[in-house]
Amino acid sequence: MIKLLIVEDEPLERVALRKIIGREFHNIEILEDAKNGTEAIEMAKTQQPNVILMDIRMPESTGIEAQKKIIQFLPNVKCIIITAYNDFIYAQEAIKYGVIDYLLKPAKPQEIKNAIEKALSLNSKLDRNHTTNIFENNSTQQILMEVISYIKQNYKHELRLTEVATMVHLNPQYFSRLFKKELGTTFTDYVTKLRIEEAKTLLKESNLPIYRIAVDLGFSDAAYFSKVFLKYEKESPLEFKKRHEHFEKKRLLSN
């Protein structure tokens, strides 16, 4: 049975979506609704949905922010954004984080049905492990979503553009141009930024030494890690950690 999670802060919207899905699909279990991004993350952890219908602008955490976190522990979930905001920036962000469709409110029942059928089709292909079939329709967006999902699962290890291009059956030079055109950044830059963001989290939330963080995130050594970190954050890892500790102490004292 396919499990589907609705994430929407408007009660009437949740009811309408439930009616449409219940009428059109008999092989889907609709989980308890999430009313904001924080609830969506917790529900995704405990219920492990296959498909998520997600609003963008909600209390506590946006749909994009929630999906960004969900895909880290549930990389194969198929997310469909439903929003009142026709914003290219949102759509571009959505592609980065594994969203398979982007519907504008008020979405027609047929549009919702089509999007869910697309999610079910992708889920079925993944379950059968027919990875090659996913790319046979030459869908640029679909290829990028699969590539990004793979990167997010493996960015702590060595990732070579040529190997990823081969995985999706594309010429490396063409794949490199396609990646830059669609995402506005190079393959290497994208992977590096993921590593730097994870490094910032570890520097703030753990007591791991800098050399250990560097090795764990796939950098060759601490010196190279510090050089790259300085390039992206305009301060060294040690300076970043000390600055965060300083602000945290001030915050605790003020409370």
CATH architecture of the largest domain: 3-Layer(aba) Sandwich
Runs in which pLDDT lies below 50 for 5 or more consecutive residues are 129-138
Instruction: Give the percentage of residues in beta strands.
Output: 5-15%
Report the end-to-end length measured between terminal Cα atoms: 48 Å
Count every helix, treating DSSP H or I runs of 4 or more residues as helices: 13
Tell me the radius of gyration. Answer: 20 Å
Major sheet details: 5 strands, parallel
Level-1 CATH class name of the largest domain = Alpha Beta
Count every beta strand, where a strand is a DSSP E run of 2 or more residues. Answer: 5
Tell me the quaternary state. Answer: single chain
CATH superfamily of the largest domain: Response regulator
Strand order of the largest sheet: 2-1-3-4-5
SSE arrangement, N to C: EHEHEHEHEHHHHHHHHH
Mean pLDDT, all residues: 84
The secondary-structure class comes to alpha/beta
Q: In which range does the helix fraction lie?
A: 55-70%
What gross morphology would you assign? globular
CATH topology of the largest domain: Rossmann fold
Could you characterize the architecture of this molecule?
There is one protein chain. The protein has helices at 11-24, 37-47, 63-73, 88-96, 109-127, 131-134, 140-154, 161-167, 172-183, 187-205, 210-216, 222-233, 237-254, and strands at residues 2-7, 28-30, 51-54, 78-83, 99-104. It is of the alpha/beta class. It folds into three domains: 2-129, Rossmann fold (3-Layer(aba) Sandwich), CATH 3.40.50.2300; 132-184; 188-254, Arc Repressor Mutant, subunit A, CATH 1.10.10.60. α10 (187-205) packs across α13. It is globular and about 60 Å long.
